[in-house]
Amino acid sequence: MQNFGDISNLKRHVLVVEDELINREILSNILSKDYEVHSAANGEEALRILRSGTCSFSLILADLLMPVMDGFEMIRLLKEDESLRTIPVIVMTSETDAEVRSIKMGAADFITKPYDMPDVILARCERIIELQENKSIIHGTEKDHLTGLYSREYFVEYIKLTEKYKADRKVDILAINIEHFHLLNELYGRKAGDNVLIRIGQILMDLYDEISGIGCRTEADCFYIYCGHDTDYASILNKLNQGLSDTFTSHRIRLRMGVYRDADKSLMVENWLDRAKTACDRIRGDYSTDIAIYNNDLFDQSKFQERLINDIDDAIEHKDFIVFYQPKYDIRGDKPTLRSAEALIRWNHPALGMISPASFIPLFESNGLIQKLDRFVWQEAAKQIGLWKEKYGVAIPVSVNVSRMDIYYPELKENFLRLLRENDLSPKDLLLEITESAYSENAEQLISIVENLRESGFMIEMDDFGSGYSSLNMLTSIPIDALKLDMKFVQNMKKDAKSMKLVELVLEIADFLQVPIIAEGVETEEQLKLLKDRGCDIIQGYYFSKPVPPEEFAEFIEREL
Ligand code: C2E
Ligand code: CA
Ligand code: CA
Predict the structure, then answer these.
(1) Under DSSP, is residue 344 helix (H, G, I), strand (E, B) or coil?
(2) How many CA atoms lie within 13 A of 152 on its CB side?
């Protein structure tokens, strides 16, 4: 984009083309108050000055009737000249006829002779210059340089213009976003990130005809499409996914799409885009779906999320976040024994009451705030293990959740080691739960980070096992110390034979890998028995206890002792 900032304190250059000396003088006097004024006695001289390139002109004021080359001819030649055609021309004339003719030829405005009041002339000049400069700003940012798609500003202008002529056509807006785009940049470098954006741009442009729409890119990794109503948006997403997975084989790139259908024409175009974006943001971090349709409830939801983001710092400071503990019992012997606990966060919000982690964990995972929160939980948990150890003389290992965002934090291991030192713990006391889907996203890098943690003695539990897409092949190369069976299998065990079969299969896999299996979400004696009969080692669930505050958890320890 042209930078007007650095010329704003300099005077703009204006060229006065007029054969009569006296008129040139009058105009120069008026204009020199605000502008650097140059003059020419006829069209030919004017073109010579303009083409010499000694300075860049913001405006030309031209008489029409002049010897050698008149104003009409000069305007005609100007408009043919690629480098000069955008300089606006104000014609100065006393004949109404000529005014119309010159405007038709491309003049921007006219001033009548004898000259208007000086202030009127200055005001008209200023207005024309401003109009032209605004036009070039829009023109300058018409395209996003990286992808060749439109810029957001131009996209919005384009839609507004199209809507003027096709107001009764139903339209949809699609917003497309790349999940964890910044991670992609961090892991593979900016160039790789750029290549992904460029590829998305290409695929979208190839689709323009088919969907009779256009697209833009904004905020690094956000794309919008304006298209006819009932466009097959799922197929657009498929084509994007296909194109990306063909091009980038080493990393799975996940796209999300928000759809605002049948846009409300009484709203502003900008609001249409916001609504598509709101829908798109809602499924951030939600791996069960990649398309969300906007509805009005979403508006409240996004307000709610905005509030949570605003409140997180205060909540940490005021200890509105509390860490609860849920026991895990070893069921291999005759009598279940307390084996360890899982630390689970709770938010006791002063105005909104108890908020479930489901409302804020995915949200904070999507914007990076989770790192702050997790570090708080790890610290609290480490302190708590230390306190129990001091009081009861035994360390109850506690597992903490390590979000996929935390894993790439360079000082992760150092941070854990510091917590151990500060609380006089060993690595075996602080277990780390990493969700299975994090492994399938970027297996190689994750494996090396996990190996590094294990070398220092940390034990890793693979969380939500069965919900991701680990291949059997990958499983054998992943260093883990326990598998946590996703609770939906446990809860469906009785309902469908397939889940039961899967539980058996997972137990066999664990047996093969020689790691213990932890079944989560066990609520009934019957579930416990089914699992025990099939060789499950450890149980976590309401059957034993819900997650409870540390004071209550102490009772489990005391009972055990
Ligand atoms: P998760 O890691 O899979 O944790 C297990 C969830 O199952 C917990 O939900 C727990 O309260 C719930 N649960 C345990 N036993 C039963 C049962 O018998 N029946 C049922 N229906 N549910 C049971 P919670 O505490 O609501 O946490 C939900 C998710 O939020 C967790 O799933 C975890 O992914 C995330 N989360 C919780 N605390 C943290 C944290 O400190 N850091 C991070 N990164 N994520 C956390
Ligand atoms: Ca967990
Ligand atoms: Ca889990």
Answers:
(1) strand
(2) 15
d(CA 14, CA 295): 54
Query: SS3 of 296, please?
Result: coil
- State the Cα–Cα distance between residues 326 and 311, nearest whole angstrom: 26
Q: Which residue has the tokens 């405006």?
A: 59
Q: Is the CB of 550 under 6 A from ligand 1?
A: no
* Region class of 471: left (phi > 0), else alpha (psi between -120 and 50), else beta: beta
Helix (H) or strand (E) holding 244: helix 233-247
- Location of structure tokens 């039961």: 500
Neighbours of 297 (CB within 10 A): 9
- Using CA positions, which residue lies closest to atom 15 of ligand 1? 541
Q: How much is the pTM?
A: 0.59
The verdict on the CB of residue 356 being under 6 Å from ligand 1 is: yes
Peptide bond into 114 cis (omega under 30): yes
Each residue's pLDDT tens digit, 200-233: 999 999 998 888 889 999 988 999 999 999 889 9
| Beta carbons within 10 angstroms of residue 548's beta carbon | 17
Burial class (CB in 10 A: 0-12, 13-18, 19+), 158: middle
Query: What distances in angstroms separate CA 299 from CA 277, 285, 373, one per listed residue?
Result: 11, 18, 26
pLDDT at 471: 65
Which has the closest alpha carbon to 228: 144, 162, 292?
Answer: 162
The pLDDT value recorded for residue 397 is: 97
Q: What is the average per-residue pLDDT within 476-491?
A: 89
**pLDDT tens, residue by residue, 324-349:** 999 999 999 999 999 999 999 999 99
- Find the 561 Cα to ligand 3 centroid distance in Å: 28
In this structure, what token pair is assigned to residue 383?
């302190």
For the ranges 91-105, 300-314, 493-507, the lowest mean pLDDT is seen at: 91-105
In this predicted model, what pLDDT tens digit does every residue of 349-397 receive, in sequence order?
Answer: 998 888 889 889 988 988 889 999 999 999 999 999 999 999 999 999 9
**Ligand 1 within 6 A of 541 CB?**
yes
> What percent of the chain clears pLDDT 90, i.e. is strictly above it?
54
**Non-local CB neighbours of 499 within 8 Å, separated by 6+ positions:** 488, 489, 492, 493
Atom 20 of ligand 1: nearest residue by CA position: 521
